[in-house]
Amino acid sequence: MKYLLTLLFCLFLSQSWALWPDPIQIFYRDSFNIHRAQLHDEDYEHKVLEASYQTQAQIAMSYYPDLKGIEIEFVRKDIKTTMAARPAMDFIFRKKENRKYKIFIDTSVKNEKGLLLSDVPFNAQVGIIGHELAHVVDYEEKTAMGVVFTGIGYLFHPYRKKLERKVDEIAIARGLGHQVMEFSSYVLNESNVSEKYKKYKRKIYYKPQQLNSLMLGYSIY
Predict the structure, then answer these.
(1) Do residues 131 and 119 touch, judged by C-beta distance below 8 A?
(2) What does the alpha-carbon distance between residue 133 and residue 177 come to, in Å, rounded to a whole number?
(3) For the segment 50-91, what is each residue's pLDDT rounded down to a tens digit?
(4) Strand-pair category, 71-77 with 100-106
(5) What is the DSSP letter of 60?
(6) Residue of 60, 59, 55, 3 whose CA lies nearest to 30
(7) pLDDT of 197
(8) The pTM is what?
(9) How does pLDDT run across 181-212, given as a tens digit for each residue?
């Protein structure tokens, strides 16, 4: 029975991966190397998202076909990190299938405490957007009370670390490992953010070497 369940699980994963695009190491701004008709589908177009991020969002979204049709709004707002994904405030009154989500994009950085999305390379932008979409996948797996507990747990570093690393693993499994790793590498090795901010990132999130090791565990890379 144990081996049968393992076989069924492997078959499920293989069928799921078949729905997701193959990993691509680098996406370029001017001639992004991706040729899939679904990028031109209206469900992948975020009408309130400014044009400079539209392609990145569409590429990232193509790795999450299960989110197609779910209402996701990109919002410009002064927050404490580059991007953040949250359910709309009325989620507690909605059925799971009717939830709406907001992905916030930071508008202001003070004293090098963060990093604006506009300062990040194109390929890494795909990575962090893909990371935020993985948060939506995580939310979609939870009941309303589960979402509430997630919000409470996120106030504490041990839970935050566990969640953020789980979300990175979701993005890697989908095929966006190269992009997530590039974002991490850029923040820690190339950006002008403060050492305090880098220390926080190292504490909570996977470091580039760890992301690379995780990727090697998937046959798709």
Answers:
(1) no
(2) 13
(3) 888 988 998 999 899 899 889 999 999 999 899 999 999 888
(4) parallel
(5) H
(6) 55
(7) 92
(8) 0.86
(9) 999 999 999 999 999 999 999 999 999 999 99
